[in-house]
Amino acid sequence: MLELSPRDREMLNGDHGPAPQLAMSILVRMADVYGAGELMDISQAHIDSTIYLGDATLEFAERLGSLGARVAVPTSLNVSGVDECGWKDWAVSPEWAAKATRQMLAYEKMGAVPMWTCAPYQTQMRPSFGQQIAWGESNAIAFANSVIGARTERYPDLLDICCAITGRVPAVGLHVTENRAGQMLLRLVDVPLALQQDDQFFAVLGHLVGKLADENIPVIDGIVVSPAEDQLKAFAAAAASSGRVALFHMVGVTPEAPTLDAAFLGRPPERTLAITTADLRAARRELTTADGRELDMVILGSPHFSLAEFRNLAPLVAGKHADSRVRFLITSSRLMKELAAEAGVLGPIVEFGAQITLDTCILASPMLPPEIKTLMTNSAKYAYYAPSLLNTRVTFGSLADCVRSAVEGRVVRDDSLWQTA
Amino acid sequence: MADRVIAGRPVVEGEAEGEALVTHDALSFWGGYDFRTGDIIDKHHPLVGVRAAGRILAVPFSKGSSTTTAVLLEAVRAGTAPAAILTTGADSFFALASIVADVMYGKSFPVIALEPDAFASLQSGRRLIVERSGLIRER
User: Fold this and answer.
1) Does B2 score more than 90 pLDDT?
2) Beta strand A354-358 with A134-135: parallel, antiparallel or unpaired?
3) Do A34 and B90 touch (CB under 8 A)?
4) Which residue in the set B11, B90, B93 is minimally distant from A156, CB to CB?
5) Which residues of A154-170 are buried (b: 16+ CB within 10 A; e: fewer)?
6) What does CATH list as the number for A297-412?
7) Min CA distance, A198 vs chain B (Å)?
8) CA-CA distance, A352 to A50, in Å (whole number)?
C-alpha cells in the first residue's frame, strides 16, 4: 500500500496548484504499478519528453504549460524534434519545425535548462555518485547509473516531467541499493587485447550485451583495457537500444564494481554466459545492413558528439576533404560545439566539409532528404535505429573508417582486426 | 467449445477484445512502431511489417527507448494503438502510456501481466477477451 507524505497529499489535493496535482496524480498511479510503498525525493531530473512526435506529445507539454507547471529540482532537457537554428538547411517542413519549437518552448518555460542534448552527463548537469535523480533517455539512464553511480529508474517520456514537477519518485528499483546488484555474469573469454583496444569494441560489446541481458542487470568481466568515457557512452547507448539495460557493471571499470563480488553485492550470479570473439564478430555484422559500397552520408554523434570526440576527429580530417557526393554530418549540442570551437578543433572539421546539427538528431527530426539512402556511422545506436526509423541502410565502422569512406566517396572498412581476431 | 480462461493481473484495468498477436521478443515502440499506421517497423524484430493496431499484443516487456510511451500515446490519440497489451511483468512503460492516455484523452487500454507459463501458452490469431479483473478468455 502506498503511503503518501503530508506534502505529497497536499500536491494531490491541489494545494500547490493544478500542475503538481496532475503530475502527482500520474505519479501515484505509477507508484501502484511499481508496487511502491512510498515516494522519495530526487535532486535532479533529465526530461526526454522534449522529443516531438506529433500532436499528442505537444498537447501533453502544452497542457502542463497551461497549468503553470514549474520544475521543482534542477532539470536538463533532452534533444528536441528540431534544430532550432539550422532546420531550414534540411528537409524539415515548416509545420513540423513550428510544432517542435512550441514543444521546446513549453518545457523551457517550466524552468528547465535548455541543454537540448542526449548526453547531459557531459555537461555541467552531470550528477554525482549516489545522487538520487529521475532521468529519461535510455542512453543517459544507463550512463548515469552505471558509469557515474547516480541512481535513477528507467524513466519513460511523460513520467520524467511529472517527477521533475513534484521532485518525487516511487521509492523502488534502481533507487534502492539492494536492487542494484548484478544478476547475470557475462564473461569475456579469450577476447584479445588488440580487439578490446579497437575503437569499435565497446559499441559492439554493448549491442551484444543488450541482447543477452533480457531484463537482468549484466556484469561484464574480463575487460583488460581502461575505456575512455566516450567508449562507455557508446556501450551504454548500444546496450539500451538492442536491449533494456538501465544499469550495468563492468568489473574494474565502473564505480559499483571494483570487484566481481562487489558488483553482485556478495550474491551469486543467477546466470553466467561466455562472450567469445566469434560472438562479438557476429554482433558487429548485425550492425551493418548495407551490402554495397554506396555511401550518401556519414553520420556521427548518437549520443551527441562530445568535446573529446571532436578532438579525436580533428586530426583525422585535417587537410582532407570529404567527397562531394557524400554528406558528413555530426549531431551534437550547442555547448559541445562551442567548446570545440574554443579548443580550436572545429576549424579543420568544418573545412573537411562536415555539417553540424544541434539540439536534435537524424532519428528525432525528419531532416534527411529522401535521396539519402545509405549511411555509415560509428554509433551502434544510429546503426540500430536508422534502418527502421529512416528506412536507410547502414554500415557500421570505426571513426577512421568513416573518415576514409567520406574521402573516397564509397564505403571502405579496415576489417582486418575483426577477421583475424 | 468452452473458452480457455487465463488468469492475469491487471497492471492497468480495462476491457478489450481482439485477435492475439504474440511475440517472445521485447519491443521498443520508438523505432519499432509507426503510430500513423499501427504497424511494427523494427527491422530487428520478428513481427516487422505486421499491423498491431486494434489487436491484443502480447510482448514480454518493453526495451530500448524512453520514447516508447510517447509513441503509444500518439497511437492512442490516432486510434492505432493495440487494443490491449499483455506482458510477463508489470511493464511501467506500457502502463504509463495507458494512464496518460486516460488523463489526456479519456482512452486507456488494459495492460495485463501474466505468469510466464500463461504467457507462453498464448497463440497469435486466437480471439481474446480481456476482462476488467485481468481474466482473459480465449475462444
Assistant:
1) no
2) unpaired
3) yes
4) B93
5) bbbbbbbbbbbbbbbbb
6) 3.30.499.10
7) 25
8) 32
Residue B95 is classified by DSSP as: H
Can you list the domains of chain B with their CATH numbers? 4-138 (3.50.30.10)
Q: Indicate whether B1 pLDDT > 70.
A: no
Contact call for B74 and A53, based on CB within 8 A: yes
Q: Residue A253 has what pLDDT?
A: 98
Residues of chain A found within 8 Å of residue B26, distances taken between Cβ atoms: 214, 243-244
* First-to-final CA distance of chain B: 8
Closest CB from A51, A160, A388 relative to B43:
A388
Smallest Cβ distance to A138: which of B61, B66, B103? B66
Q: Is A53 on the interface with B (CB under 8 A)?
A: yes
Beta carbon pairs, A and B, within 8 Å: 122
Beta carbons of B74 and A57 less than 8 Å apart: yes
Average pLDDT score, chain B: 97
The answer to whether residue A211 neighbours chain B at the CB level (below 8 Å) is: no
A302 grid coordinates: 548518437
pTM as predicted: 0.98
Query: E strands within B13-114?
Result: 16-22, 33-34, 39-40, 56-58, 84-87, 111-113
Helix (H, G, I), strand (E, B) or coil at A30: helix
Residue ranges of the domains in chain A?
A: 6-178, 181-286, 297-412
Highest CATH level, class, for A6-178 = alpha beta
pLDDT tens, position by position, B88-128: 999 999 999 999 999 999 999 999 999 999 999 999 999 99
Gap between the Cα atoms of A145 and A151, Å rounded? 5
The reply to whether residue B71 touches residue A48, judged by beta carbons under 8 angstroms, is no
Grid coordinates belonging to A389: 526509423
Q: Answer yes or no: is pLDDT of B78 > 90.
A: yes
* Sheet containing A297-305, strands listed edge to edge, beginning at the edge strand earlier in sequence: A354-358, A327-332, A297-305, A374-377, A393-396
Residue A194: CA count within 13 A, CB half-sphere: 7
| pLDDT-flagged residues of chain A (< 50) | none
Cell of residue B135, nine digits: 481474466
Q: Which of A161, A163, A385, A396 to mutate to test the interface with B (most CBs of B within 10 A)?
A: A385
Residue of A nearest to B45 (CA): A388
Same fold, A6-178 and A297-412: yes
Using a CB-CB cut-off of 8 Å, the residues of chain B touching A214 are 26
Q: How far from A22 is each of A14, A38, A151, B100, B106, CA to CA, in Å? A: 8, 18, 25, 10, 14
Among the partner-chain residues B11, B41, B68, the one whose CB lies closest to the CB of A33 is B11
Q: In what order do the strands lie in the sheet with B56-58?
A: B4-6, B136-138, B127-130, B16-22, B56-58, B84-87, B111-113, B9-12
